[in-house]
Write a structure and sequence with these properties.
Elements (H helix, E strand, L loop, with lengths): L2 H19 L2 H14 L3 H26 L3 H8 L3 H32 L3 H15 L5 H27 L3 H9 L6 H12 L3 H11 L8 H30 L13 H36 L6 H5 L1 H18 L4 H25 L3 H4 L6 H30 L1
Amino acid sequence: MSAPNRRNVLLGAAFLMATSAIGPGFLTQTATFTESLLASFGFVILVSILLDIGAQLNIWRIIAVSEKRAQDIANRVLPGAGYLLAFLIVIGGLAFNIGNVGGAGLGLNLLMGITPETGALLSGAVAIGIFLFKEAGRAMDKFAQLMGFVMIALTVYVAFKASPPLGEAVARTFVPEKLDAMAIVTLVGGTVGGYITFAGAHRLLDAGIKGEQALPEVSRSSITAILVASVMRMVLFLAVLGVVSQGVALDPKNPASTPFQHVAGNVGLLLFGIVIWAASITSVIGAAYTSVSFIAGFHPAIERHRNKVIIAFIVISTLILATIGRPAQVLVLVGTLNGLILPVSLGLILLAAYRSDIVGNYRHPVWMTVCGALVVIAMAVLSGITLVKYIGTLMG
């Protein structure tokens, strides 16, 4: 692989992971938490970035050095664990893709005035188009980068126009007035939970960037991915903070649209349409690609026809959205399971780091293991509490 192509794949993998994280749920959560925590939400973002990097560095490095996909590593650590992990990832990916397709439909509804269902079908067709290319991987890399830049640029413009209290935002990022543990677990789960953290790692593996010699590049790409997603989170936080500090209430139906509409009226709504469409369509592509990568190795026919299986995955989620809509309770339950997937998958990856039959002579840095173990414990406890609460509300 030539040096420019290699750089493109590394950047593409980072943007694939970042844009997979930045979906309609990401936009809504960021706006909602900013309204409730105000400037102190900066602290939540800071803590979640550190936890995200702790999780992602471990996962990407062990996948690269073992030259195996996550489910194959999990099966080597604990027979059968890889199949369970693949099942959870695929079910979660499908459920979230229904929400992602819905977000894309809403974006086209704002941009073109068509019904959200028609917008969803058109968006599904665009996502399918990416995987009809012979060089689908390269097309996916370029598309993710372009959409990532578009989202961030438009949100930067809105944040600038919203005139947020920057001094207070910086101060509260380090000395918060309010704390919300559940906001942290939601952000971490939404950035590196479920299929998301594996999107870029599996992309690098598929492109042949693997082995111990590739670790410096893999580490840089993994951190770049977190930073891209975090820049979008911080910029949207500042945009929302700017308008709520002026006493503007967020639209409960679509909270993230409020700063766009407030600073630029109807033009702002069109800008938000572009942002939510870009966020949603890239998440559709990332979820489909990564979910199928978790089952591709289980049968030669799946590996051989991988792009067709990815297209089928997109078709199914688009048709469910267009006919049934978004099954809200399913999405909430799967969202909680997504938080639980991270401690399970990261725990298995950390065990694999010390198995010479998986990583050979590679020595995993102790500080990375410690950081990863802290993420496993924190996410397991907080996700467990959330799951108990959710089951309690169902029983009640």
